[in-house]
Each structure stands twice: as structure tokens, then as C-alpha cells.
Amino acid sequence: MQTINQTSLRWALALAAFFALFAGVATGARAATGGASSYDPGAAIEGEYTFGAWRYGGASWYGPGLWGHKTACGQTLQPGTLGVAHKKLPCGTTVKFVYHGKSVVTQVIDRGPYVQGRAWDLTKAASDALGFEGVGRVRYAVAIGDATSARSD
Question: What is the DSSP letter of 7?
């Protein structure tokens, strides 16, 4: 059995994430939502991910007043858009969130929040998947290989 070194694994994951990001564009799979992913409680983001260390961060949710507007990553925000906003992580970075026993795996699709003490803004669909209401702390882990840095502070 051949051993894969950590750098090769990270490059392979990054390349797979890149191709997965553009696969739907070629087939028009995302055309109905303006390029944004739609929330389907029975579906998970395809692929296997290795996540970094678990951390805690302040979070809130957003959406209703911004539906129909473009996100910083170029998607149109819709009621079913599954994603999160973060100030520094690259667009498309995969992140897993856990809140009160529920979890969701999603991607960075926007920039924000710009409120002191908050690291994340979850879309309405992401907050619904977690049962997260209002403002609070969430547990999260960033997929290794998706971001240049798993640090999000």
C-alpha cells in the first residue's frame, strides 16, 4: 500500500473542490438558483472531507432582506441558499457546523459579518438546518485543503 503525504493530499482535495465548484456551471445544474446552492435537508455536500480542529465562534444568520441580491462570491441569495459568510476564508471553503446536536456542511459564499464578536453569518437555510435562531456560539471546523489557512479569527 502506498502512503500519500500530507501535501499531496491537500493538493488533491483542493483540486477536487475546484472541479466540484465548476461542475454544475457546465451542466446548468445551478441555473435555477442563480448559481447558489439550494438547501435540501436530505442532501449533503458531495465528497469526503477531512476537517481541521474544532473551534467555537460567534454567529448570527441573515437572508430575508437580502434575497435576490448577489453575494460577495457571485451567487444570488435565495431563501433556500445554503451557505455562510466569513470575513477572511476564500469563497468555496467547506465548513462543518454543529449546534445543539445538529450539524451541517456548507461553503463560504459571502463576506461578513461585520459585527464585533461574530465570526460567521449563516444563511437562513443553514440556520434552519442547525435549529439556530438569533445570535449565539457555534462549533465549527474548516475542511483541510479547502482554505489556505484553517484560521478564521
Answer: H
Average confidence score pLDDT of the chain: 76
| Dihedral, 18, 45, 49, 53 alpha carbons, nearest 10 | 110
| Residue 116 Rama label (left phi>0; alpha psi -120 to 50; beta) | beta
pTM over 0.85: no
Cα 116 from Cα 95, distance rounded (Å): 21
Q: How far apart are CA 144 and CA 78, in angstroms?
A: 28
DSSP string for residues in 12-29: HHHHHHHHHHHHHHHHTT
The Cα–Cα gap between 36 and 75 comes to 5
Residue type, 88: K
What pLDDT band is residue 128 in, cutting at 50, 70 and 90? Answer: very high
* Superfamily in which the 1-153 domain is placed by CATH: RlpA-like domain (2.40.40.10)
Q: What number of other Cβ atoms are within 10 A of residue 100's Cβ? A: 11
Strand (E) or helix (H) holding 124: helix 124-130
**Could you report the per-residue pLDDT of 64-120, keeping only the tens digit for each?**
889 899 999 999 999 999 999 999 999 999 999 999 999 999 999 999 999 999 999
